[in-house]
TrEMBL record, chains A, B:
Main EC class the enzyme belongs to: transferase
Full protein name: Branched-chain-amino-acid aminotransferase
Taxonomic lineage from the root: Bacteria, Bacillati, Bacillota, Clostridia, Lachnospirales
Recorded catalytic activity of this chain's protein: L-valine + 2-oxoglutarate = 3-methyl-2-oxobutanoate + L-glutamate; L-isoleucine + 2-oxoglutarate = (S)-3-methyl-2-oxopentanoate + L-glutamate; L-leucine + 2-oxoglutarate = 4-methyl-2-oxopentanoate + L-glutamate
Recorded family membership: Belongs to the class-IV pyridoxal-phosphate-dependent aminotransferase family.
Organism: Lacrimispora amygdalina
Cofactor(s) listed in the protein's UniProt record: pyridoxal 5'-phosphate
């Protein structure tokens, strides 16, 4: 593997004060990882360098044809001062599946993992330690050919930036209100819904703005073909607990395969809870919410980890879930996953990767 | 309206030599237009400045969440030396419809048109005059907030860059071979297919690569719901002439409303040719191609203007159209539209806008 060279900043920035609660994704650390790609040459010159602006041609393909991929994961500092990454192999694997769909060249897994470890290690003093905080890691690739024809780019930049963060939702673990959207569509089978790429997120904005205006924090998407089956929430996968069974939509080609989704499924199975990955229609969800058989509902995602849903709104109907309080299983998933992330609990083999 | 300030370059670039045939979208002129947006302040400081690299934070939202819009139109120099834009009002109107879908603030129409005229005027010596060449104009907007949460950006940059171009297809007006795709999907109703934005183009790359590998230059998309109805070609709208009737898919929410598409429809109607904007299934297309009732097939788009289709491939079947030669109507549309663009013919009122 190529050696990652390190160039340290001469002017470290001031770290966020301990008194201010951290928000999400606004503050960036002193360094970033960068590696370039050129067709025929491959990925070259991997380096950790001072955090800096990018200089790009206005004709760079990323600005015009959306050829971009991103990932999101977190680093935590344990009480003993160890630095842990949570299941980075899953993010690396998914990144390369996204790359494949987007015609972006594969990133060698070993280089990707080493890059994560190196940049986090260099900026380890930026990892916050207050409850609910962590260092959010954003790997991303952009297409850089200065060319206006439509084809895959021949050059790319893969970067990793770091941001000390607090809770994704300002409300923390308070249950959120979710709007079930039946007009706009996020993605469809055969499209790019499975890939972690900008096009899926910009597609979600108009519905999100509409939901916000109505007092809802996220949108729950229905499938684009039947406009009937539950897909995912804006930035999360979705779980329902109905009559003791945990149900989440199956990965069908238009849903993002979340790492936290996979972790919740693994834990529930380990705990002997019946889980089902299957199609679930909005009618089934509404019926279960009305009858009170829906015991819990929660979203899962790297940014929020586990986020309880206290209200679902479909058309004109508002359905309260679990009396607007966080459910027992939701809390258990949150406590267990954050416990493993913080090194207080031992998770399944390979879930915690230490940065030396 | 705000005045557009002009800062001319001190180091003009060398223009492409007359001996080399121009390609598409690789060479850029001496200047570009730029205007910034900030929430609460609106669009400010419109300017034509020397063509330059963009300096952007790596956390700029455009790199992560695909909030970007583009347009494409062309400027021509007539034999008398007049500079003409072709239907810029249609591009401006569509840009703002795209912006609306993408939660990007509206660009004042008057400013947009003035920006087009000013930057083209400043770089008018770059307009090529050989047959088949023109100055391609690329207006585009990118989201620039340095923020990793998912929401519409509060800051944007709107730019216009210019590129002297030859034919979009190296083959010129030679009929192209089109691959009808039945696996990948470009867009679906409720999504962003109607908007001119990167996400639709990156979604098209994998199928395009597959088609290229099979010797086809473009992909013809089927709808994402039924996988049955014809939508559009990679970078063009599509027309069929079957038994004397010109048919093109209706604008259904997932198809890009092309300016050339609209122009061809207007001209055909003016010429007394029966046109139908309606759903057309791949079965109907295949049956008409097999029986020989399909007289012509062509794509329309700003880059290629009109592009004859000589072969359609669906599953294992290859269907030759018009004996692989350009059809009469296809040629007439091409000659008329380029004639109007070059000022040799008088088009409908408002189609030609002069840059003084």
């Amino acid at each position: 593997m190529q050696t990652i060279r390190i160039e340290r900043t001469a002017c470290p920035k001031e770290k966020p004060g301990k008194e201010n609660p951290l928000t999400f994704g606004t503050i960036f650390t002193d360094h970033m990882f960068e590696v370039d790609y050129e067709e025929g040459k491959g990925w070259y010159d991997p380096r950790v360098v001072p955090y800096h602006k990018l200089e790009l041609e206005p004709s760079s393909m990323v600005f015009h044809y959306g050829q971009e991929m991103f990932e999101g994961l977190k680093a935590y500092k344990t009480e003993e001062g160890k630095i842990l990454l949570f299941r980075p192999d899953k993010n690396i694997e998914r990144a390369n599946r996204s790359n494949d769909r987007l015609c972006i060249p594969e990133i060698p897994e070993e280089l990707f993992l080493e890059a994560l470890k190196t940049v986090v290690s260099v900026d380890q003093d930026w990892i916050p330690t207050k409850p609910g905080t962590s260092l959010y890691i954003r790997p991303f690739v952009i297409a850089t050919d200065p060319f206006l024809g439509v084809r895959p780019s021949h050059t790319y930049k893969f970067m990793i930036i770091l941001s000390p963060v607090g809770a994704y939702y300002a409300s923390g673990l308070d249950p959120v209100k979710i709007w079930i959207e039946d007009d706009y569509v996020r993605a469809v089978k055969g499209g790019i819904g499975e890939a972690k790429t900008g096009g899926n997120y910009v597609a979600s904005l108009a519905a999100q703005v509409k939901a916000h205006d109505e007092g809802y924090s996220q949108v729950l998407w229905l499938d684009g073909v039947h406009r009937k089956y539950i897909e995912e929430v804006g930035a999360m996968n979705i779980f329902f607990k109905i009559n003791g069974v945990v149900i989440t939509p199956e990965l069908n080609g238009s849903i993002l395969p979340g790492v936290t989704r996979d972790s919740v499924l693994s834990l529930c199975r380990e705990w002997g809870i019946k889980v089902e990955e299957r199609k679930i229609s909005v009618d089934e969800v509404v019926a279960a919410a009305r009858s009170g058989e829906m015991e819990e509902c929660f979203g899962t995602g790297t940014a929020a980890v586990v986020s309880p849903v206290g209200e679902l709104r479909f058309e004109e109907e508002r359905m309260s879930i679990g009396g607007g309080k966080i459910g027992e299983l939701t809390q258990r998933c949150y406590d267990t996953i954050t416990g493993i992330q913080l090194g207080r609990l031992t998770g399944p083999a390979g879930w915690s990767v230490e940065v030396k």
